[in-house]
Amino acid sequence: MDLSVDGVSVTRGGRRILDEVSLSTRAGECTALVGPNGSGKSSLLRTVYRAYRPDAGTVLVGGRDVWKMTAAEAARNTGVLAQEQHSGFEFTVFETVCLGRSPHLGTFDRFRSVDRRVVEEALEQTGLVDLAHRRVGQLSGGERQRVLLARALAQEPRLLVLDEPTNHLDIRHQLELMELVRGLGVTTVAALHSLDLAATYADSVVVLQEGRVVATGAAESTITPEVLRTVFGVDGRIDTDADTGRALLNTRPLCVCPTRSCHWSCKPSDASRVSQM
Ligand SMILES: Nc1ncnc2c1ncn2[C@@H]1O[C@H](COP(=O)(O)OP(=O)(O)OP(=O)(O)O)[C@@H](O)[C@H]1O
Which of 4, 60, 190, 205 could disulfide-pair with 162, CB 3.0 to 4.6 Å? Predict the structure, then answer.
């Protein structure tokens, strides 16, 4: 199911936090939203899963305006792993993942065998089978993050919206989560702080800065030395590992030393380039 965000602006607290943002993803593709803290990644995702209503612009999922759907209809399409989901700690992992089936069940519908099968598969995919009967409140941050992903998968979404899904995850689980998401073939939009995960796993990257899109396209044309410097405030580049083809982010703090004798052994040309910015 494709996603199209067209000219979306959002104002909160008297400030424009998204300014005419547009992006489009093709069905089955993974799009990474990257940008420094406060650049608008979560706010943009919130417009997609109907938590922030835009002042202007449209969000179309499968060609339909999400704000013209009912909440239940939108939930049947879109699975969400949001930040700050701190409730429901008294439920077990199994019960929490079962909640992902709610959009597919009427108020008085019983849980069917198909629902149980989908929940079990989501637990399996996220490596949670052994934790199924533990209370969510007793889990580590990383285990809890996987529970939230499992709940989103149990929705059988046609669009997956992930806000910093690798938060709290150790390196193995970060890679497994990204592999899993890629392998699902479900259209995915994910806010990621890790630029190398974005470069390795996303079909396209959208770079946000102060609520605006400043670059969009393949990782090599968006996460450039220029973007790293001007948007993220670091010197660096993305290299490709010759053996694995994986992206390797090579960065260092931006050189600002007027003396040209800093810890990072800046060449005079580096210092003069920085002073011209
Ligand atoms: N409900 C709100 N009221 C006021 N300001 C808000 C609201 N929601 C977001 N903002 C502001 O909008 C800006 C973008 O926030 P957002 O959470 O979208 O950034 P982000 O790129 O996801 O940041 P981070 O990487 O730190 O998670 C921030 O300055 C934030 O304070």
Answer: 190
Could you report the predicted ipTM of this complex, rounded to two decimals? 0.98
- The total number of structural domains in the chain stands at 1
pLDDT in tens, the chain (277 residues): 899 999 999 999 999 999 999 999 999 999 999 999 999 999 999 999 999 999 999 999 999 999 999 888 888 899 999 886 666 778 999 999 999 998 888 777 788 888 999 999 999 999 999 999 999 999 988 888 899 999 999 999 999 999 999 988 889 889 988 988 988 889 999 999 999 999 999 999 999 999 999 999 999 899 999 999 999 999 888 888 888 878 888 888 877 666 555 555 555 455 444 444 4
Report the candidate in 196, 195, 160 with the shortest Cα–Cα distance to residue 82: 160
CA–CA dist 8, 144 (Å, integer): 32
Distance 5 CA to ligand 1 centre (A): 18
Question: Does residue 135 fall inside a structural domain?
Answer: yes
Q: Which residue has the tokens 């499968």?
A: 62
Amino acid at 159: L
Task: Read off the CATH number of the domain in which 219 is found.
Answer: 3.40.50.300
The SS3 call for residue 243 is coil
Q: Could you tell which of 10, 17, 49 is best to mutate to test the pocket of ligand 1, judged by most ligand atoms within 8 Å of the CB? A: 17
- CA atoms in the 13 A half-sphere facing the CB of 193: 10
Flag whether 77 is in a domain. Answer: yes
* CA of residue 212 to ligand 1 center, whole Å: 13
